[in-house]
Amino acid sequence: MKKIALVGCGRISKRHIEAINNTEGVEIILVCDINEERAKATGATLGVPYITDYKKITGVDIVSVLTPSGLHPRHAAEIAENTDAPYIVVEKPISITVRESYELFSRIDKAGKTLLPVYQNRYNPLVAFTKELIDSGKLGKVHQFICNVLWNRNDEYFNIDWHGTKELDGGVLYTQASHYVDMIHFFFGDLVESKGIGGSLRNLDVYDSISAVCRFYSGVVGTINATVDVYRKNYLTEFTIIAEKGTIRLSGTNLNKIDFWDVEGMEQPDMDFTIDHVYGKGHDTMYEYIANERWDMFPSRKDILSGIAVMEKLSY
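Predicted structure:
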């Protein structure tokens, strides 16, 4: 049984708690948050001890860092340097800049620990299926893609102290749409060039809406539009691929639904891609890999660093 400590008891911690509780071979034995009231409440719910200083963590196999985005590099590095946990799980994004990513890996290496980034959308069945389809060559040359992440985050959401700040949030491509930026990087590789235009339509320190045009070394061109300014509730998540031998449109929660399928020599797959959770079920899969020590299922360092570079290029 692998023992886990959670650092950060905010919004995303509930998804991790649920995933860990659904997975055999892993268990939460400690929680930590700088806000003692929040840490105490989470600990009481789980029936485990709580602390407010992550440097005092001891006796665990995994520490999951679930703190504000801009604090991930410092928190993960200090946990690696000051605790005996061999593996550090870090929620997306592992950092807001490429420079911070390199520094984080350097400090993790010097501490003799291993970084495990959270890329849960890669484990969603339809995303994994699409990746295999592209790599197999069955679509022929991919010409273009269109990705739209049109969501709502209300004023209450941005009243949380770190949301909407340049230092800790990074903007819509980092804190909301980062997994879709990762997805186009996962599918198509590294950027040759891009042009993004962003707006802070709600007077935040960061962009709450971005439209970007991209060209990849693979020759693929496409657009990604992301916003958190949709009225009242999330409206749409969609991804379209236009290729030499087919056209596919995906939509739904975490892209779990095929809306259009026209692929040469292939019927639309008769598979159930249903995901009944707003975050998808990728966190469950990730903790299953941890329980079974499938470290090979996590992205490589090169992959992680080039993905952060894509996000940085599109955001600034």
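Summary: The mean pLDDT is 94.
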